[in-house]
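Figure 2 data, in text form.
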Amino acid sequence: KDLGYDVEATGYFDEKMLIAVNEYKEANKLGNTGDWEGVIGAQTWSVMFSAGAVAKIITPDIEEEIETLPPVNDNKVPDEGTGNTSYNITLEAALDKQMKQSPQIQKNGRWVNASRDEVLQYLDPNNYDEGVYKYQFLDLSALAGISEEDMTKYLAGKGILAGKASIYLEAARKYNVSEVYLAAHSSLETGNGTSTLAKGVVVNGVTVYNMYGIGAYDSDPIGAGAQYAYKMGWTTPEKAIEGGAKWISEQYINNASYKQNTLYKMRWNPASPGVHQYATDIGWAVKQTSSIKKMYDNFQNASLKFDIPTYK
């Protein structure tokens, strides 16, 4: 309730509570499909009381979204330019492929199949290419040019992440991933450096760390996340920061086949629509834009580069 969800302490898991749980899990990017829909698992419970818990996302009606767009770069962060990547597929053909994947939309706290018009509303880049929503096209493979001093200030007070500025900057340069995105992503996933996985878990007598929640499935987030860290050899916080950056780069942002370097591309993969997509929620990329912008607001000297797809 403190996070803005419409619930009352009744002692019962009623319909209102189910809606709130579904909204909360969606806002915090927690697994909420299949047997886990509406279920408060270990990961959901731990995130709920962490510093990184996300408050309720108020998503405007589709018809109203374009009219309520805020101005671009209203935080006066330098805009290094907007580019376009062209794809050899029409928007209609891409839409046809997306519809075969049963894309989802949340209505009244429940996930249902989205209509063709609803999918098109989010798939068409022209509908969300201004204001805060433009951040779904932010190029996450571009370095933001943050100094070690500024990164140190951002990480100060963030538990085990504090003092690791040079590690983030080096990982960003090595794997071509925005240093701001890496720091913000790990801060969110670890509850500002205070989660169990961030502080270390012993597996087979070895303490391992996981700073990005990679492999931390909702059914057993700590156990699964620790096992993955053990498999990857993340035996120090530094190795976990760098190793996670490598994983994010190779799997999505700089993936040789898909090159999903923006939130939009992670969701819709215009290079190969319907394949290797991060989410089924049609609004996933747009919903992340507010938090992404807030991340970059911490770095007033960050350079921004946008990459908007162009369909044939």
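Caption note: The first strand starts at residue 79 and ends at 87.
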